[in-house]
Fold this sequence. Notes:
The structure holds two protein chains of two kinds. In chain A, 30% of the residues lie in helices and 16% in strands. Chain A is of the alpha/beta class. In chain A, the strands form two sheets. A nine-stranded mixed sheet of chain A has the order 3-2-4-8-1-9-12-11-10, with helices on both faces. Chain A is globular. Helices cover 3% and strands 40% of the residues of chain B. In chain B, β3 and β4 form a beta hairpin. The two termini of chain B are 18 Å apart. The A-B interface holds A 130-131, 135-136, 139-140, 144-147, 149, 151-161, 163-165, 167-169, 171-172, 175, 216-222, 268-270, 272, 274 and B 17, 19-25, 28, 53-54, 79-89, 95-96, 98-100, 108, 110-114, 125, 139, 141, 143.
Amino acid sequence: MRRETLERRAAITGIGQSDVGRRLGRDPLALTLDACLAAIADAGLRPSDIDGLATYPGAMGGAPGFTGAGITDVHDALRLRLDWYSGGLERPGQLGCVIDACAAVACGYARHVLCFRSVWEGTAQGKGGRAGIGVGGGAGGRGFRASGPTMEFTLPFRAYSAANWIAMFAKRHFHEYGTTREQLAQIALNARRNAAGNPKAIYREPLTLEDYLGARMISTPFCLYDCDVPCDGGTAMIVSHVDAARDLRRAPLRVEAIGSALRGRPSWDQFDDLSTMALRDAAAMMWERTELRPSDVDVAELYDGFSFIALAWLEALGFCPKGEGGRFIEGGAAIARDGQIPLNTNGGQLSGGRLHGFGFLHEACVQLWGEGGARQVPNGPRVAVAAAGGGPLGGCMLLSRA
Amino acid sequence: MIRAGVCYDRAPVSDKPFRVLPRVTPENEHFWRGGERGELCFLRCAACHTYAHPPSPVCPRCYGRELAPEAVSGRATVLTFTWNHQPWVPSPDHPYAIAIVEIEEQVGLRLMTNVLRVTPETLRVGLAVQVLFEQHDDVWIPLFEPRSA
């Protein structure tokens, strides 16, 4: 039986983003609400029109700065009257809550869902660098004992960070396919070039291959520039039912297909193919749900929490064959703004700031609406893919301009 | 059964790096304390003989309920690795090697671990390694070192 693809009843009708900075020192809820109210206004709606609310990960303990607000915070601050809401961590990546929002409007649970994600990791880490936001996602302290399927089998082996976990996928890719650091560097260099056109980007000064190769190592093969930069900021978008989207301020961006699959083991170290990740399955599912092909995509905004994740998404989404990612990005031409598949046009998280997934979807919308300014992809892109997550997390969305 | 080497014979207490220790439960005790006897243990299904890791009350292959700890040889192969340089926790021994190894007894039976007594010149994907244990309080952390021919 061919599956129904009801996500096509969903559209993105507005986007919003707060100030973005390394250490803004602002109330995280205020940043979150800046983004939410901007998105509502951008769609031409009022808060009273919002009847759905979705976020990742929502309120939680753990690493300071990882989440700026939960469902309850935003619900109450804006005195929303909700028919549907959903927040939580266990979902296919950061965009999983937006994917859920598409289902909610398609099912008629809500008409306009406000989706948001905010972070304040820049302020939280203070002067302590990454160590300031805690070991292994906030673990630490005397007498602390690791438990749960991820922490129990990583922290005792001094693998404290996703930098270590993702580095091992990268190393396996290097081993199987001959990928090199010089090739991987292009993800970071491309991001930095594009960040120059993004006034909100954290790092905008030029970065050379020499700088990259001379940078200190974090966890081989990753150097400093393979790791994204913690920041403060909130991002939001409105997912509306297409019928409710028609008379709004903007031309709605149709959701062509979503990908949420995880067909392998949900694990950082037990996944069947260590040269790719869960994103393999999410990408495959997305293409199973549309007639569009990779060659139809005009711009790709792909998660780069670590550089290798973007390379793995490029392969998984079919922009190049499996294993060819290193050769595909070599020299950087194919992923440049005027290249075969423009990648991370706002600087991604590597240079733009770690807005944690939502920045990619925001930028995909900016590009489809033709509002990228200095970083706008030429010739009016019509189809964009936004993807977020690495390791056992992965979710993606294919958007099109009518 | 080949008994694994025991690290703490060779490594005095002061040489051990800081480690976050696991919370030991009845379900995972065989894994974290098997090293006291020099044994690397995994749960194994009585019906279909599949090893299950991390520990689970149900066999992931046949869904049988009878799983019991069983020691493996301790021989493994490095599937991938990283040299960690970043001082997430202050320690004098950076960089150190984190690896994912595959246990000889079953394809897909893997552990994240550390490989000791290697250098950037000697650690490679495919390296044959052997378990050893590092005791911290009430747990024995399974680590690996190159297997001598």
